[in-house]
Amino acid sequence: MAGDVMMRGVGDSLPVPEFDAAAWVVPKQLANATVAIVTSAALHRSTDEGFQPGDTEYRLLPSDARDLVLGHWSPNFDRSGIAIDLNVVFPIDRLDELAAQGVIGAVAPRHASFAGNQPDDVATIRIDSGPRAAAELKADGVDIVLLTPV
Amino acid sequence: MSTLAHVFEAAGIATVTLAATKSVVERMQPPRALFCEFPLGRPLGKPGDAEFQHDVLARAFAILDAETGPVLESHPQVIEADETPLTCALPPRFDPSLPPAVDEANGMRKAFDRALQRRGVTSVGRVVEPDGIPGALQILDDIANGVHWKEAGIPGSNTTALCHDIRTYYEEAALELVDGPPPGGRAAEAWYFESTQAGRTVMAARAAIKEQGAPHPAWFYMAPGHR
Question: Quick check: A71 and B217 in contact, CB under 8 A?
């Protein structure tokens, strides 16, 4: 069986948490909004502490950082794409271009990176590290977040 | 990703999610999502193609115009992974006194160094630095030939991290050895596991570790699950 077919099949049977009262924010107009990326690729700066298996914490990535390495522990996705072009996972250069064109208001000064392979209950990122990361980006003036998986 | 979308939205930040698995996003219902049926590991679809990446972003950001949600849309283009091994020259046998994978890893070093010089960064180094890759393959070759995995001296006692470093060393080097457009998703993986001595050694060691009765995570995550 092809790898992606198998992994998407695994996703079909994964238990997922329930969100009874889903929040909804009326977005600021994109041309005036500060946009950040939040990725689950476990990217981190080469000089930062790497991700451990089951790591529920996050790393903040300065907007001008390009020394990003892959800290994800799963062998079940393509890694060559990001080795060729960081933007295929973390489209930071594309956001810079959109800001220069005035399509978005600004690129956030910092972005957040989590590890996608979380414990099944995702309890920590839901009630602890996730809200902390959101508060840090909120303090940076972030209006809109683009979430990118691997 | 969908969990974080709910968390960030609850914190007052509007979110739009690039979703890789439709069944998950359908059940979790993040506020706004664009399902992109692209190779896993490539959420923007095409490395080195800024125009295509901008198309993905434009479709994702357009969902922000919706007045109510949740909203789930799909990118109209499907990109399937390519599991045909990329065409990449391998170094000739140089030192027949070494196991083939160790000899091969030594021969890949110049290509790896060019990759490192070009990119300025490498994802090798979780438990083994580039200098240690041939030695890491010697350890796996020992295991494949009967040494017990617990007595083989696995760096960090972590087979997953060790295999990550070896595979990454090879894949980063291979990208320096191929011409033309970027290879499809999983083509480098297929080349590594099916064409290189290193990939064969990893798979042989994986089978040996399983046979030795190691816990499931100790051998299973040495390679993708479908292998």
Answer: no
Task: Please report the residues numbered 85 through 104 in chain A whose beta carbons come closer than 8 angstroms to any beta carbon of chain B.
Answer: 85, 87-89, 91, 93-95, 97-98, 103-104
Residues B121, B203, B81, CA angle at the centre, nearest 5°?
Answer: 60
Eight-class DSSP state of B198: H
Query: Residue ranges of the domains in chain B?
Result: 2-74, 100-220
CA distance A56 to chain B (A): 12
From first to last of its 227 residues, chain B has per-residue pLDDT tens of 799 999 999 999 999 999 999 999 999 999 999 999 999 999 999 999 999 999 999 999 999 999 999 999 999 999 999 999 999 989 999 999 999 999 999 999 999 999 999 999 999 999 999 999 999 999 999 999 999 999 999 999 999 999 999 999 999 999 999 988 999 999 999 999 999 999 999 999 999 999 999 999 999 999 999 99
Substitution target from B2, B29, B40 for chain A, most A beta carbons within 10 A: B40
Answer whether A123 touches B (CB < 8 Å).
no
In a mutational test of the B interface, the residue from A80, A82, A120 whose CB has the highest number of chain B CBs within 10 Å is A80
Residues of A in contact with B24 (CB under 8 A): 11-12, 14, 16
> Distance between terminal CA atoms of chain B?
26
Mark yes or no for CB contact A149/B6 under 8 Å: no
- Are residues A149 and B27, on separate chains, in Cβ contact within 8 Å? no
Q: Which of A23, A68, A84 sits opposite B6 (nearest CB)?
A: A23
Q: Is A73 near chain B, with CB under 8 Å?
A: yes
Q: ∠ CA(A55), CA(A56), CA(A60), 5° rounding?
A: 95
3-state SS, chain A, equals CCHHHHHHHHHHHCCCCCCCCCCCCCCCCHHHCEEEEEECECEEECCCCCCCCCCCCCEEEECCCCCEEECCCCCCCCCHHHHHCHHHCCCHHHHHHHHHHCCCCEECCEEEECECCCCCCCHHHHHCHHHHHHHHHHHCCCCEEEEECC
The rounded distance, in Å, linking the Cα atoms of B109 and B131 is: 9
Model pTM score:
0.95
ipTM: 0.96
Provide the 8-state DSSP code for A12: H
